[in-house]
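FIELD: query
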Amino acid sequence: MTSDVLEPKAPEAIRWSAMPERGTMASLRLLGWIAMRLGRWAGRLLLYPITLYFVITASAARRTSFEYLNKIRGYPAHWWHVFGHFHCFAATILDRLYLLRGEFQRFDLNLHGKEILHQRMQTGKGCILLGSHLGSFEVLRALGVMQRNFRLKVLMNPTHNQNITGFLDALNPVIASTVIAPDRMDTLLTVKESLDAGFFVGTLGDRVSSADKTTRCQFLGRPAVFPVGPIVLAAMTHCPVILFFGLYRGGARYDIYFEHFADEITLARDRRAEEIQLWMQRYVDRLEHYARIAPYNWFNFYPFWNQAPPR
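FIELD: result
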């Protein structure tokens, strides 16, 4: 396994961002209207034909789901396993409608390791929350807005999946205002100011964008490319890092996990690449741990292991 930090803009490494958005604004509004007017039961009933449609028509995502499920299960997956994988993803998107509206009473939210979060909140100092596309990151965003003592900003790209992002942001403009775009000239300054002001800054560490430098880590038995940005950001800001995973457990249940990751990340100049890789591998090991707890929560529907080799 290499520990080299890669240069950005390898075409294969940004395949996820080039994938077209499938849902139209009209279909999202119709689903939202049904879910709001008739209730969550009606929205969940609609998820079955919607999921079946995508299992049949989304061939690239279907192949990726098979590949992932085969790896994590250890034996061949069948089409009904892919259906369950797609349905889990669709269920978390539907639940965003209610989470963004602050309707927490609909859900059974179980917080694990919340004392880690509370201890940091009591200091009044900022912290980096490192999550992933495993489960629902929206649970964290909604908690950040609805609980006033939990001040949260989120590093995320608002231009990807613009239809669903715009639709969901319209449900709660306050949550939309917490986003920090990752590709602006003043992004680092904004993050630093937010941390200095005592905000938690959430970011995701499992998906590579076009401008990211990367490293290779072992995930589910094979090397995969991961962005080094979260580790570099933590090292530059000298802030503690807490891991976050919001796992959907079926029905109305979510298990929300917080884990201490680092009090401070320092990188030796002469071993910078190696140390970044070691920190990222620690993160990936925890990502794999939670993926095995809730396998259907893996929401990276693109060729995750077939990305650009190191240069």
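FIELD: remark
The radius of gyration is 19 Å.
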